[in-house]
Amino acid sequence: MTPPIVYDLLVEGCILIASAHEAPVLDAAIGITGGRFAFVGRAVDLPPGATAAERLTLPGHLCLPGLINVHTHTILSMVRGSAEDMGFAPAYTPGVPQGHMVTEDEAIALARLGACEAMLFGSTLINDTYVHTDLTLPAMADLGLRVFSCNRIHDVDFSGIAHGRWEYDAAAGDRLLEQAEALAQRFHHKPGARTGVQLAAHAPDTCSPAFLRRIAALSRRLDIPVQTHLAQSKVEVAHIRERDGMTPAELLDDVGLLDDGLVAAHCIHVTEGDIARIGRARVNVAHIPKGNATGGTIAPTRALTEAGARLCLATDNMHADMVEVMRWALCMGRIQRGAVEDSWAPEHMLEAATLNGAAAMGMAGELGAIRTGWRADLVLADLRRPHLTPHQDPFGSFLHTGHGRDITHVVVEGEVIVRDGRPVRADLETICREGAAAAAALWARAGTGR
């Protein structure tokens, strides 16, 4: 007689959306063994006698693949509520705490605060970049989520950017490339780890053309893709036009970075030629609808995707709610057409936040769906709350009226890392207190530029 199956974790009783374009499964069961999905389907179809070391019985909950945030800066939670009303990104804004001001301890405290926020809101993988990443990457990963990270790579002197000065320093660029390579050797796809690296070329205007070519060469040598900001501001576009006589997208193409491995954040100020170029290259566009709208801008996502770009979603800085991002992305796309169309629907936003994000992070076929054999990352949201009742269309209700704070449980690689809305591996109050103290210290120093 065959002994009954014993899963490491069994999630049951929920409404399952196994992937973006699949119909919901009512009263579902998900069995996980060895960090991978071993059973996905209806509870009544579980193998006879199946049991588990741990069970989550969650009727009235919606189960989704873990959300993948392909572009964020966790430390920049330090400027939330302030920088949004200053008109542009913090790195270009006088009077705002800057990356070169952040101490190691402050970086760790703020990064853990931002990563915890993202995790509580349903992100099971974040792609983060800023400063002190040799310390912040493991500090964030210790919370249990997947973390890709890299120091921002540039050869500009960032202390002058907020004052309109672009001064390039080859030696500084050399140091940052060396740090990025060392980070990759230490953390990229190590067995048993939940960490990775994407080389973070900061932006076309903060990297000289020669330096961008060196980043492209390092990417090829290490077989590690690149992420960057692209056409995020009129300032960037004007500077590249003056410096190089081309658009930012043309520059990235010229130096060998515009390809299907690139994660390009924003893509707002692009010409029709840029859109065609980005589409032909099958670039992963990290769409940041809420952050862009806060600054009065909108990326031409409909044109970009129709040209061939892959739409992915991200929060960038100052908030980490990917559920809200899906809603904003849906609405912004509809505004561009002035219509509701079947080709731009809630399930397409879920695809952007899961399967497309996994592909952009080099993990297609591993993450982004709840499928037998895939890595066991999932989130569960409580649909019994007033704003989610009734829910004839469970995911439609969640996208249009839900929030990250409706997520109650998060599972990564089969481990429950958020339970009943609380992090399992860390004390939430301590994370918030230490993050707030770090931000206060930075704002106190910002006026002096130290």
Q: Structurally, how many domains make up the residues? A: 2
The proportion of residues in beta strands is 15-25%
CATH superfamily of the largest domain: Metal-dependent hydrolases
Class of the largest domain, according to the CATH hierarchy?
Answer: Alpha Beta
Q: Report the span from N to C terminus.
A: 71 Å
**Principal-axis shape:** globular
Overall mean pLDDT: 95
What is the CATH topology descriptor of the largest domain? TIM Barrel
Helix content: 25-40%
How does the major sheet shape up?
9 strands, mixed
Total DSSP helices: 15
Task: Pick out the low-confidence regions.
Answer: none
SSE layout:
Layout: E1 6-16, E2 25-33, E3 36-42, E4 51-57, E5 61-65, E6 67-72, H1 104-120, E7 123-130, H2 133-141, E8 146-153, H3 158-161, H4 170-187, E9 195-196, E10 199-201, H5 209-222, E11 226-230, H6 234-244, H7 248-255, E12 263-266, H8 272-280, E13 284-287, H9 289-294, H10 301-307, E14 310-313, H11 322-337, H12 346-353, H13 355-360, E15 378-382, H14 394-401, E16 407-412, E17 415-419, E18 422-423, H15 428-446
Parallel strand pairs: 1-4, 1-5, 6-7, 7-8, 8-9, 8-10, 10-11, 11-12, 12-13, 13-14
Antiparallel strand pairs: 1-2, 2-3, 5-15, 15-16, 16-17, 17-18
Helix pairs in contact: 1-2, 1-15, 4-5, 8-10, 11-12
In short:
This protein is 36% helix and 22% strand.
Brief descriptors of the model:
450 residues, alpha/beta, Urease, subunit C, domain 1, TIM Barrel, 2 domains, 9-stranded mixed sheet, 9-stranded parallel sheet, globular
Account of the 3D structure:
36% of the residues lie in helices and 22% in strands. The model has no long low-confidence stretch (mean pLDDT 95). It is an alpha/beta fold and 450 residues long. The chain has helices at residues 104-120, 133-141, 158-161, 170-187, 209-222, 234-244, 248-255, 272-280, 289-294, 301-307, 322-337, 346-353, 355-360, 394-401, 428-446; strands spanning 6-16, 25-33, 36-42, 51-57, 61-65, 67-72, 123-130, 146-153, 195-196, 199-201, 226-230, 263-266, 284-287, 310-313, 378-382, 407-412, 415-419, 422-423.
